[in-house]
Amino acid sequence: MNQRTKRGAVWASAVLISSFLAFGSAASAFAADDDGLGLEVTVTTPTPVASPAPTPTPTSTTKPPTNTPNPSGPPAPGGSNNGGGGNGGGNGGGSGSGGAGSGGSGSGGPAATGDEVSIGGALFLSGLKSTYHPSFNPFDGTLTLEFTVRNVTNETITGSAHFWANGVFGNELADHDALAVADIAPGETRTVQTELPHIGQWIFVNANATFTPPGSVGGVTLEPVTRNAFVPIFPWFLVIIVLIAAAAVVIVRILSPQGAPVPQAAE
């Protein structure tokens, strides 16, 4: 056992001495060579990247137009006089056309007013107006109808009028024909009126009037014109009959005995 221990101590001493010798050789070699291990370290500095500069927006600049006179030679003899004459003629023509326009607008003639209608541009006929006058007789009454005729010519005009009225069922109630409308002076407005009798309380009546002018005035052919009017008529007689009947029913109900005993049959 002691012999093995001695051999191990010897081997350990030898290994330790060899290690020291190897370390010393390496240290002396490193001291002799300044380059050491020969490693090169390169330090790279990053290059700064420039940010893109903003692109300028093109702007357009409009310069005011410059009138550059064109060089011209001396006017030819008589050239100035001809140019002046041309300008004068152009201005005169423009003024003349404006005058013609004003004259055209002034020749429009009279126009219809209100509910009037034109008869060939010579006469103007108004709408038909009506007034009802009731009577105690439900089958009687008077209907007043009227219209106006306006003469816008320079001539005296004579015509005629026809009035009539129809009932609810289209039946003719009254008629007034061939009413003369004589000597309507230039610029005059004539009122034509009539009364139609025997107009009962038909709830409503359709009134009509036709004006017949002369065949022509100033070379213009004229035609008859008809105007109409819806005339409501309150049925007083019918309303009174209904009220009387209703009152009679109420009176009978009031006067009739209430709860009267019902007779029973004898056993």
Automatic annotation (TrEMBL):
Residues 1-31 form the signal peptide. This is DUF916 domain-containing protein. The chain crosses the membrane at residues 233-255. It comes from Compostimonas suwonensis. Residues 42-113 are annotated as: Disordered. Residues 80-111 have a biased composition (Gly residues). The keyword Protease does not apply. Coiled coil: none annotated. Keywords: Membrane, Signal, Transmembrane, Transmembrane helix. Residues 66-77 have a biased composition (Pro residues).
